[in-house]
Amino acid sequence: MERLFKPKRVTEILNRHGFRFSKALGQNFLIDGNIVRKIVDSAELTEDDYVLEIGPGIGTMTEELSLRAKKVLCVEIDNRLKPLLQETILDNYDNVAIHFADVLKTDLNELVKEHFGDNEFKVVANLPYYVTTPIITKLIEDDLNLKSITVMVQKEVASRFAGEPSTKAYGSLSVFIQFYSNVVYNFTVPKNVFMPKPNVDSAVVTLNIKEELPNIDRDKFFRVVRASFSKRRKTIINSLSTYGFDASKEEIKKALELSNIDEIRRAETLTSEEFIALSINFPNI
Ligand code: SAM
Question: Domain 218-281, CATH 1.10.8.100 — does that match?
Fold first, then answer.
């Protein structure tokens, strides 16, 4: 059978079903076999792996996942894709299940348990760009039995995930993602491997979920991080003392001192470990 990533085959299937792309749903389908293989390579799948794919589209990557993994579960919001996915995937591959729903409104713990039992799983997806961060945040915060997340996202977002201190890409999103995972920036993807072509370049990143996390008040930690980055060009003392926390400037100075952080530094120079120390020493907010 001809593989799905051939542009001619994609066009033929879409036309035969009278399918029109939805921009609002971030539908940019892959039409390049090399990129599909490279994304799946980045996830380092074995035949024992359980995989969750978000947004299978017409199943281009699903097909490759199905050939390499034990079981694939997809969550797709667009019901119009039902007959297409039936023809391309469900009629041909028996280790794939497709759940039609908005992933953001889905109880993933329940769904994954139903299909994968208590087994650990990996996420592999070409994400709809309008909801990249909410989806990743949900995956991380839902406390799933998740090993890694390999996703195609906008290049600029991938750089923020992987951002290191003192670089332009580093911000509260970098600290958040790197608190939970070790980030690998795999490769950049040009616009011309999609149909239709998006406006920006993309990149594939892998977030390897950390098994152990620092035992701290996470809510307080992320509030301190967000406040620190709220005024990027100002000093850390200035950002924190004008943020509106119920804490005096003196108390905040003391917390910085206890954490060995010079108050005239800017947030973008602080490492994750320094933010952790600061949140531990920070007054109760
Ligand atoms: N995986 C396919 C590919 O690479 O060709 C399609 C990727 S396309 C960038 C994103 C897919 O996510 C679309 O199929 C879209 O309908 C689906 N999608 C958009 N929002 C979604 C949501 N909230 N929940 C689940 N799927 C969603």
Answer: yes
